[in-house]
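Running this now, will post back.
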Amino acid sequence: MSRRDRVVRGGVLVLAVTSLLLPGSYAAFSSTDHAAGSLTSVSSFYASDVLSDGAAGYWRLDGPAVTDSAGTHPGTVTGTVGSVPGATPDGDSALRTTTAGALMLPWTVSGDASVELSFQVAAATATVGDGTLWYGASPLLSTSAVGHDGDFGIGIDSVGNLVAGMGDGSAGDLTIASTGTSYKDGAWHHVVWTRDSSTGAMVLYADGSAVASGAGGTEPLTARDHLSLGAAPSFTAAAGTIPPPLSAGIDDVADYPSVLSAARVAAHDAARPSGYLAAVTADSPVGWWRLDDPSGPSAAATAGGPGSYVGSVTYGTGGAVAGDAAVHLAPTAGYLQVPRLVGSDFSLEFWFKDAAPVEDNHVDWSGGAALVDGDVSGVGNDFGVSIDASGHLMAGVGNPDTTLHANAADYGDGAWHHVVLTRTMSSGAIALWVDGILRAGSSGTGNTGPLNAASQLTLGAYSTGAGGSAATIDEVAQYPRVLSPAQIAAHYAQAS
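Update: finished.
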């Protein structure tokens, strides 16, 4: 059949040939996948925040070459170090310092300063210090130099408190420390120390919140030209005790020639997702709309360009992911449009719940109540997902029309359901996954050309705004590749 837009009048489905009117902000896409605004193959929303906030040096520590992602200041490994899975879910690894090895990183900041890293210390790890002297704690990061002022460091003491501070020629050694929480628990923690050179004020943050603050010095931080991770720099012990090297996981070290605000520190910590957010982030979506917007008409994009809400939309309803929000799209009266960022190999992912599907066409994917529609009148290079009145899900592509059916259950039951449509262009293979499982009748072969007819996808309605479902929609994502069965199952499992 030819591709036709749908109009619903008085509850009767009417097929009409119409033109598709698109907002001017979304230009037509070429025959190749659209990549503007997308993440790199090794994605990290955390890394984006670090770089956009002006890091002078940023060492991701994801390989044997200690490169600087913000500049040209490579680090140097001394002794024996190891590797562990990284703190952020971006497919990388982290450094494991040992009692026989550490890492030296260039230090180029002297005035206002912020130092940031993630660390992991097991509960059984031996640490020293009592929180009263910053250079007496087991070092996570240090420029400690006996007999020199303008040095500083961050450490962890014998009970797991975080300790930070600096030396100043006139004020002496100045220390701030957290209390009440042990950070020796084997989990990854995010820590930031800031120093304002005009006032000397220091703040220590852990996992996005300030845990200690106090007076520091105003002397330039120039005692050493490098940072040492996992050990204090080598110096003569005549003036004091040198803490022994520390066995710790360390990742994503950055320094800034500015004082990061509390809001930016919290934003960095929030960009280190866990659970569902971590699973999606690790799989590098080119477009991701979480749909937790408090109002419209713009739908914020975590990746890709913003979307647009149209008509009757209820914001802030309970989401599919624990602690998240979603949007409810009124049938035939409210919908959402987002840029189509895929067209060859892809995975289209979203969550929905619908208690009362209304369309009764269970033969063709374009005849049900639209959940996601990429249809264009008279053009066959399109795709979409819909639901019929029996609660059966359908998905398919055009040219030729190929429809997959997930009829094993009634998905119009008012519960949240996870949907992933995958497509491989070279073979035309398409598959419909529901709640982490490839359902019976949900795989087939369709078009082997690019599916780029629509420059945007419409959720909750067809592209005309008619024929929609009474759906609540959440966590819409597009990937320029076919997600594996394990990845799809992991996304579904991590939502609760």
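The chain has four helices and 31 strands. More later if anyone needs it.
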